[in-house]
């Protein structure tokens, strides 16, 4: 066999020794043919990589394409140039809206990037009596998807209460199906375990969930790895303390770097390569960061044909000038150069024809009116105690606060107290209900924002402190059939269109990113302070992320999975 080309003089990553040494790498077809200190072949093209580093293609085993608000083909176009050659996508957002039909639409798209899939385990994320979604993934759907070779795992199991129940709950049955799957191909069971510890964590692992991607602390890293859990570290987990813990205890075999969620405007600046660079910045040796973004994720998902530069493995390769920024000079996917620095990216196409027309008309609820945002009580009183979701400045967790608010003529004075009001409109035309929650730490200036991209059920969420602006934002969301809208001074000031299911754009990511950046800027001008304003707002409706969240059924205590009254004592 003759090589197609040889990469000469590169500092090649030696996976098992986790170091770089000067080597030549020959590629034949889709695979690596040879790795040696000196290779030559008459008539074969040579690429001089003197002074550069050659690493395996990056592998992201926990991510959601829908968080980038685009579709797989467009996602592949944007992220391959970052050296991300393989991903494992958990499409539970599209599944919450369209069920298995949405997942199949994703899986049927042809991409240069290898996209494998996780079976969405929690659609809806809790139970139908706690939140309304557009579809449900049950046992039959899981059996169908588990039979597909493109499916590698059961996606993040979120409903801890049902998993650890003695009853034969749905999530326990889904885990059992995946663990008992035949054909000699084990499916991994991924977890969502925020602030789960002690006996509850042991039970979680006992039931088959042996990985977690949620925000970690030094303490949780040690506890979970000591119990045999595999950790997938995203950006918010890569604090100096967490990285120091991983390095001090040499936990690299049990760790992978992942993205989880990458917003469209952030996607234009990097993907897993940016996470890898951040790990290095926080103190992880570059060789270890490469190991944890290539080999350990491949091993976790039984992707034995990649993640290492070795003869017979896929020629998924990334050539870098330095190990600080992780910005590729060249990217090879299955032996083909798909990116070269200095050459323009292929522009994305408008793909409206690829999505079923029904995907474009999925938001079905009434228009809001000012009276929708007036909170009343039938008590004869001058004040009431209310539950409040307290937003933090970092991350998506909230705290459950209690505030006493004045009541005048039966109306609760939430605006005077400096709070914002959150309202969730059920958008699937199933219940037609509206629920309410009060929020501290959101807007300081008068205005509002609304979205149909609200984790995970994607009902229509409105947040604001001005009823007129809340009406304007909600009404505009209905007009454009989904997206993000920010309003103040009585009119819409910024909007991002997501017409496919209310969660995806059919436009190039570059265009969507501009729209979303304008929404983000408008929210900041209204005083919203968080490291990711968009995701912070969207997760106010996520009832598996601590501590108090709002669904179309009302407020929910995440840990106990019990409903919490807005007005105390009711």
Report on this structure.
The chain is α/β, with parallel strands linked by helices and 570 residues long. 24% of the residues lie in helices and 27% in strands. The chain is built from 15 helices and 28 strands. Helix 2 packs across helix 3 (100-107) and helix 4 (139-146) runs parallel beside helix 6.
Distance between the termini: 77 Å
The helix content, as a percent range, equals 10-25%
What general form does the structure show? Answer: globular
Integer average pLDDT: 94
Give the tally of β-strands: 28
Key words describing this protein structure:
8-stranded mixed beta sheet; 27% strand; 570 residues; 24% helix; alpha/beta; 9-stranded mixed beta sheet; globular
């Amino acid at each position: 066999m003759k090589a197609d080309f040889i990469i000469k003089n590169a500092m090649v990553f030696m996976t098992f020794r986790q170091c770089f040494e000067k080597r030549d790498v020959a590629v034949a077809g889709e695979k690596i043919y040879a790795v040696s200190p000196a290779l030559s072949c008459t008539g074969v093209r040579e690429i001089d990589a003197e002074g550069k580093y050659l690493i395996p293609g990056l592998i992201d085993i926990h991510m959601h394409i829908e968080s980038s608000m685009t579709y797989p083909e467009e996602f592949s176009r944007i992220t391959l140039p970052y050296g991300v050659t393989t991903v494992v996508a958990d499409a539970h957002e599209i599944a919450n809206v369209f069920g298995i039909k949405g997942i199949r639409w994703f899986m049927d798209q042809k991409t240069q990037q290898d996209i494998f899939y996780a079976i969405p385990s929690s659609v809806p994320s809790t139970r139908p009596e706690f939140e309304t979604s557009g579809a449900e993934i049950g046992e039959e759907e899981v059996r169908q998807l588990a039979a597909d070779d493109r499916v590698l795992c059961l996606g993040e199991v979120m409903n801890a209460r049902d998993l650890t129940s003695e009853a034969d709950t749905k999530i326990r049955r889904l885990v059992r199906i995946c663990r008992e799957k035949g054909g000699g191909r084990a499916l991994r069971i991924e977890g969502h375990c925020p602030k789960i510890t002690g006996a509850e964590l042991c039970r979680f692992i006992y039931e088959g969930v042996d990985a977690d991607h949620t925000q970690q602390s030094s303490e949780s890293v040690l506890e979970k790895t000591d119990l045999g859990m595999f950790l997938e570290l995203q950006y918010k987990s890569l604090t100096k303390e967490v990285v120091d813990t991983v390095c001090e205890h040499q936990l690299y075999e049990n760790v992978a770097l992942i993205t989880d969620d990458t917003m469209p405007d952030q996607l234009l600046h990097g993907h897993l390569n940016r996470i890898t660079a951040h790990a290095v910045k926080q103190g992880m040796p570059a060789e270890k960061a490469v190991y944890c973004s290539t080999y350990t994720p491949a091993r976790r998902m039984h992707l034995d044909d990649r993640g290492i530069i070795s003869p017979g493995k896929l020629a998924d390769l990334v050539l870098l000038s330095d190990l600080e920024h992780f910005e590729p000079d060249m990217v090879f996917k299955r032996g083909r150069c798909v990116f070269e620095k200095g050459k323009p990216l292929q522009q994305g196409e408008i793909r409206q024809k690829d999505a079923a027309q029904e995907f474009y008309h999925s938001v079905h609820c009434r228009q809001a009116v000012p009276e929708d945002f007036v909170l009343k009580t039938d008590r004869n009183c001058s004040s009431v105690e209310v539950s409040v979701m307290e937003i933090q400045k970092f991350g998506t967790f909230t705290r459950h606060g209690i505030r006493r608010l004045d009541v005048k003529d039966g109306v609760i004075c939430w605006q005077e107290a400096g709070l914002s009001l959150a309202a969730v409109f059920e958008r699937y035309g199933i219940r037609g209900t509206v629920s309410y929650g009060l929020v501290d730490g959101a807007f300081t200036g008068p205005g509002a924002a609304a979205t149909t991209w609200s984790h995970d059920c994607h009902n229509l969420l409105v947040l604001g402190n001005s009823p007129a602006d809340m009406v304007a934002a909600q009404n505009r969301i209905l007009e454009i059939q989904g997206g993000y809208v920010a309003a103040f001074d009585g009119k819409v000031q910024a909007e991002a269109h997501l017409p496919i299911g209310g969660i995806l754009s059919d436009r190039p990511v570059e265009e969507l990113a501009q729209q979303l950046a304008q929404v983000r800027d408008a929210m900041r001008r209204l005083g919203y302070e968080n490291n990711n304003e968009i995701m912070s707002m969207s997760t106010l409706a996520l009832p598996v992320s601590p501590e108090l969240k709002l669904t179309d059924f009302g407020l929910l205590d995440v840990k106990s999975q019990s409903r919490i009254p807005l007005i105390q004592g009711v």
